[in-house]
Write a structure and sequence with these properties.
Structural class: mainly alpha
Largest sheet: none
Distance between the termini: 56 Å
Strand content: under 5%
Oligomer: single chain
Helix content: 40-55%
Number of helices: 8
Length: 153
């Protein structure tokens, strides 16, 4: 019986850094992300995401469903961490941004524009307005998947 030799394949490095890495999170899914959510994201994650998407922290906080006062308390807190439910809201936002960027061929500016424009498939709502809830985020991601696969109805 002949012994097969295994060849090693190396993936080419990606030309761009994932949004998850840019904001300082270790992964976009799985137990590592769940652990980070349960621990609470650092306030720095919010600041980096705001910078990555060219949006004010105030607007991001609003779209995540947090009040300015609550966010200000998290900033002043000695740990500078969001609560798990707040971290989950920001994870949803990052997922939605990632999906829109993928749909638009990696063009971040187009993704931001698409998220801010009314969508017929969302009854005229802007996708960004639906980021604050799991249901709204799923609706947007389903729409993105339909658009990517040519299903418009």
């Amino acid at each position: 019986m002949a012994v097969q030799q295994l060849r090693e394949f190396r993936l080419k490095p990606k030309a761009h850094q994932s949004i998850w890495a840019k904001v300082g999170l270790p992964a976009g899914e799985g137990p590592v992300l769940s652990d980070a959510i349960n621990h609470g994201f650092s306030i720095d994650v919010v600041n980096r995401f705001a910078e990555a998407v060219s949006m004010s922290v105030t607007n991001l906080v609003q779209y995540a469903g947090l009040s300015r006062a609550t966010f200000a308390r998290r900033v002043k807190d000695k740990e500078h961490r969001l609560k798990p439910s707040e971290s989950e809201a920001f994870a949803r936002m990052i997922r939605m941004y990632e999906a829109a960027t993928l749909m638009l061929g990696g063009n971040k500016a187009d993704a931001i524009q698409w998220l801010n424009e009314p969508a017929i498939g969302l009854n005229g709502k802007r996708p960004i307005e639906l980021m604050g809830s799991e249901s709204g985020t799923l609706d947007v991601i389903r729409l993105i998947n339909r658009l990517m696969h040519g299903v418009y109805m």
